[in-house]
Amino acid sequence: MSPTRIPEATVARLPVYLRALNSLLDSDIRSCSSEELATAAGVNSAKLRKDLSHLGSYGTRGVGYDVEYLRYQISREIGLTQDWPVVIVGIGNLGHALANFSGFSSRGFRTVALLDADESRHGELVAGCPIRDFGELGQIVREHGVAIGVIATPASAAQAVCDQMIAAGIRSVLNFAPTVLSVPEDVDVRMVDLSSELQILAYHEQRKAPHVEGAPGTEGVA
Amino acid sequence: MSPTRIPEATVARLPVYLRALNSLLDSDIRSCSSEELATAAGVNSAKLRKDLSHLGSYGTRGVGYDVEYLRYQISREIGLTQDWPVVIVGIGNLGHALANFSGFSSRGFRTVALLDADESRHGELVAGCPIRDFGELGQIVREHGVAIGVIATPASAAQAVCDQMIAAGIRSVLNFAPTVLSVPEDVDVRMVDLSSELQILAYHEQRKAPHVEGAPGTEGVA
DNA sequence: AAGAGTTTGTGAACGTGCGAACAAACTGAA
DNA sequence: TTCAGTTTGTTCGCACGTTCACAAACTCTT
């Protein structure tokens, strides 16, 4: 049914389509055309159709897509029909926000442990889950079959945490620490770099403005 | 000096190079080859050289790059030599983390205001900055010349907040709310979708594992 | 000064992604 | 049944991004 590999660019958009479909279901819309769904997802309709065609033929010509059915097919393709236990390491401000983020838990991702090196915070409850010692990582991974780890530590600790995760058997890492992680071939790392995003915006903003008044940096703010 | 437009893919990597250069400077390394810098940035050396060639000829053949000089050139190209006032809207867990994130303030991005619709939180200090009412957005944008806005509200409020930002004069938006924003042509939006990243990892993880034991979802955790 | 050794910057080949256009397939009316 | 209208799935051309390979340019030794 899905003989060929799905292009990376398509994979990156599947979660967006999924969100759009959920949003349509919330509005009690049971069926939609590629045009409607594409608008809801913020993409071109041709691109949407091509993306979906990589998963199979789940639409009906002349009619459109059944929202519920398509949602299930995408969920299954991504792997959201199964349960994904996740550990979060580094419970600072960001780790705290991630632990409370409903978008994780509502998609089959289950936070099984929050870990931090700071002993003084052990036992503290965050989002109903106690903070435990980082040393327990191996045991937790084995016990729950954790495959995905989230790093929300300072940059200085990230590589060491990542190494420990891989030693414990984790093969997919979501990294929020602003540093490049080096990992073996068979381990996937995705990086979310908050300040990079702002810098990219700044670049385009600088190009938009014909010229900003005054010399940069020296004028005081009254 | 930079007559042609810089490719989007290159722009997205410039912040990574900048971080790598800063890291080298921290280790008192004053000069480096494309190979070294590429390793530090986690990319191919040919790609790095081609990326840098879009900015100009800032290296010396047979020698390499002067770390400090290259860092300045990239900073200038991105626009980090000037000051970027930023407003953050939605001071929940995530907004709180963003306000405290040092990676913003250390790169020329200055948080000039934290805004939230919840009156009960007005006046509360977060990262030394008081939470103010969302209604003050227009005045703050005018006063400080804010060009970049960060949305960290729930998805349901994001579009309205975005519309208000644009009405106030903001032309670049960094969106953390899990929803697609519709904006005019001349406004830039970058989306950071935390749960999408996890879903992409899950897709690849599912493909890696030959097959997970047992039926998914029904087995209890002892 | 000349030549061996390095390293950058770039031209060319290759692969991937995108958008338009169209054929295939379905619905519904006559 | 047949025909007009609609919408999907796919083919094709083009632009963008990546990697290889090499010429240009620099340093250092002899």
What's a concise summary of this model?
Chain A has about 220 residues and is an alpha/beta fold. Chain A has helices at about 10-25, 35-40, 45-55, 65-80, 95-100, 100-105, 135-145, 155-170, 195-210, and strands at about 30, 60, 65, 85-90, 110-115, 125, 130-135, 150, 170-175, 190.
Write the element-wise H/E pattern of chain A from the N-terminal end onward.
Answer: HEHHEEHEHHEEEHEHEEH
Distance between the termini of chain A: 65 Å
Assembly of the depicted chains = homodimer
Q: Provide the β-strand percentage band of chain A.
A: 15-25%
Given helix and strand content, the structural type of chain A is: alpha/beta
Question: What's the rounded overall pLDDT mean of chain A?
Answer: 93
Sequence stretches where pLDDT stays below 50 over 5 or more residues of chain A: 211-222
Helix content class of chain A: 40-55%
| Broad shape of chain A | globular
CATH topology of the largest domain in chain A: Rossmann fold
Arrangement of strands in the largest sheet of chain A: 6-7-5-4-8-9-10
CATH architecture of the largest domain in chain A: 3-Layer(aba) Sandwich
**Major pleated sheet of chain A:** 7 strands, mixed
- The total strand number of chain A stands at 10
**How large is the radius of gyration of chain A?**
21 Å
